[in-house]
């Protein structure tokens, strides 16, 4: 099986397929994503989420903020399982969604753990990380504020953030308070979307 042109093992394919089955089942009773996108689950959500790990396929310690329906956190955790190393801490305050995420990680033998807490509380529960991801969560400036406590512990922290067509405005606003190196990756799934890769972050004010 190929995912965004990258071949994955049969075992990973089976894990992703099982995740899709779990998602379809739970989505009948829990609002995991916009209902209009469920029929396009593989492209709009699974393949879209996989892009982040494909940009940084390292067995690192990830923190996924606002994991919701498992995107991209569960997908990253499944892809890490193929490497046999690395870990994802998924942060999701909604108890029902957190329960869904725990089932997915367990049944898909993915490399991760779920923290049913508010994002502001996460740095106390998760001491260190190498990479932070988030998808459709908040504006860039707020995401950088969320990341700040981990940045204080790891100056090499890297962020991978899904953003839509308004990302330039968010970048301009964030640069009023932050300095960072930026790589803009065009989404291979959504024409109007990008993945912002931020590193060498430094707070200005």
Map the helices and strands:
Blueprint: E1 2-3, E2 6-7, H1 10-26, H2 41-55, E3 61-65, H3 73-83, E4 87-91, H4 95-107, E5 112-115, H5 122-125, E6 131-135, H6 140-151, E7 158-163, H7 167-174, E8 178-186, E9 194-203
Parallel strand pairs: 3-4, 3-6, 4-5, 6-7
Antiparallel strand pairs: 1-2, 7-9, 8-9
What is the CATH T-level topology? Rossmann fold
In helices, the fraction of residues equals 25-40%
Question: Whole-Å distance between the termini?
Answer: 47 Å
Helix count? 7
The domain tally reads 1
CATH top level is: Alpha Beta
Q: Radius of gyration from the CA trace?
A: 16 Å
Instruction: Give the helix/strand class.
Output: alpha/beta
Major sheet size, sense and barrel closure? 7 strands, mixed
């Amino acid at each position: 099986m190929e995912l965004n042109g990258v071949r994955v093992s049969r075992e990973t394919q089976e894990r992703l397929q099982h995740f899709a089955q779990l998602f379809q089942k739970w989505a009948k009773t829990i609002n995991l994503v916009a209902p209009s996108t469920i029929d396009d689950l593989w492209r709009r959500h699974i393949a879209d989420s996989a892009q982040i790990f494909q940009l940084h396929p390292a067995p690192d310690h990830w923190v996924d903020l606002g994991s919701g329906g498992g995107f991209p956190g569960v997908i990253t955790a499944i892809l890490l399982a193929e490497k046999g190393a690395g870990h994802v801490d998924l942060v999701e305050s909604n108890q029902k969604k957190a329960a869904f995420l725990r089932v997915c990680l367990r049944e898909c033998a993915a490399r991760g753990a779920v923290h049913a807490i508010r994002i502001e509380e996460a740095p106390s529960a998760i001491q260190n990380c190498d990479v932070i991801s988030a998808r459709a969560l908040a504006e860039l400036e707020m995401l950088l504020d969320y990341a700040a406590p981990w940045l204080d512990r790891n100056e090499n922290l890297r962020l991978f953030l899904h953003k839509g067509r308004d990302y330039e405005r968010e970048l301009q606003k964030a640069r009023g308070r932050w300095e960072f190196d930026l790589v803009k990756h065009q989404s291979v799934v959504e024409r109007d979307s990008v993945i912002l890769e931020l590193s060498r972050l430094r707070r200005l004010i």
